[in-house]
């Protein structure tokens, strides 16, 4: 039995930066800032830090890569590849995703009851943020959200968790994708094409569109691309390492351009994208994510920059950042801005940077605490129960430490 492939810390950093982009995008949306003050967030390159939608695309591509790589990486000394035991794989994913989610979900229910209010602020709270937590929480809604089968952002305690439903389905498909990749890569490519052709886009009334949206093919196409990248990881890394640093930077820049395709399309069309256009844009953005990942894997210089301690830490706590952000948006920022207003601070030019800094700092500190107190025990529990099942019940070799 060979040891687990080494964790790639630079990919943690990419995940962390993507989580930060989602957070910044949402913080800017809490208040109705003048367009002239926030228009700079849509400038090319700068937009990367505020493009939450593309950041979610990166999450899915990275998940496909990271989850499948241990089972597709070439082992040393000609040993057999690590075997994927589906039941324990699923147990670890559920423990990794659902337990931290449930803790924050319950915390959100408590805070909604005791701390959440609509405040009269300068600038006013946006219509977007006022729509959340505005409906009574019933038992059926509570249970439905626990099973990720209830999809209505205005009624959910964690409005952003639609992507966790996608993550769970994508995780469930990973064993299938790994099996196809091991047999023949063309089978996996065919599965990705079939998904794009056959799975609905999620058009229709809000609830119907949200439910179908979880099954939208573009999300799982991102997972397929991540698995394909893992399948050819060794070839990609060895090939790109022979290129000059300038060429590697060019690959990275091309990936960033594709990653920002949504911004390009919106500037050219001057309107919101249609369902079909968004479908294509998502797929192109996913390809951009692959270029960014491959450029990172093949360059020691890029990896060194991304392996800075603070960026790696951001990556480690990124899931908690993702989970906690709406608590900060709804229960922290409005009363803080209201308090600043009462102290005479009403200048928009002062309030915008203050709001962003406070939102980021509070979220990161809370996320670091949640990571240590909730995420780490959840990961260890998933590993313990998987090891117990495989060692005591199935009498199989111990499970190598999982890359998460």
Folded structure, characterized:
It is a single chain. The two termini are 20 Å apart. This protein has helices spanning 9-29, 35-38, 52-72, 86-114, 127-130, 139-146, 162-183, 185-198, 206-214, 217-231, 233-240, 245-259, 261-269, 275-297, 300-306, 309-316, 318-331, 333-342, 348-393. It is globular, with a radius of gyration of 22 Å. Residues 201-214 have low confidence and may be disordered. 37% of the residues are buried. α1 (9-29) packs antiparallel against α3. The protein contains 19 helices and no strands. By secondary structure, it is an all-alpha fold. It has one domain (9-393).
Secondary structure layout plus pairing:
Layout: H1 9-29, H2 35-38, H3 52-72, H4 86-114, H5 127-130, H6 139-146, H7 162-183, H8 185-198, H9 206-214, H10 217-231, H11 233-240, H12 245-259, H13 261-269, H14 275-297, H15 300-306, H16 309-316, H17 318-331, H18 333-342, H19 348-393
Helix pairs in contact: 1-3, 1-15, 1-16, 1-17, 1-19, 3-7, 3-10, 3-14, 4-7, 4-17, 4-19, 7-8, 7-10, 8-10, 10-14, 12-14, 17-19, 18-19
**What average pLDDT do the residues reach?**
87
Number of strands: 0
How much helicity do the residues have? over 70%
N-to-C SSE string, H for helix and E for strand: HHHHHHHHHHHHHHHHHHH
In whole angstroms, the N-to-C terminal distance is 20 Å
Gyration radius, rounded: 22 Å
Largest sheet, described in full? none
Number of helices: 19
Structural class, please? mainly alpha
Shape, principal axes of CA atoms = globular
Number of separate structural domains: 1
Uncertain regions spanning at least 5 consecutive residues: 201-214
Strand residues, percent: under 5%
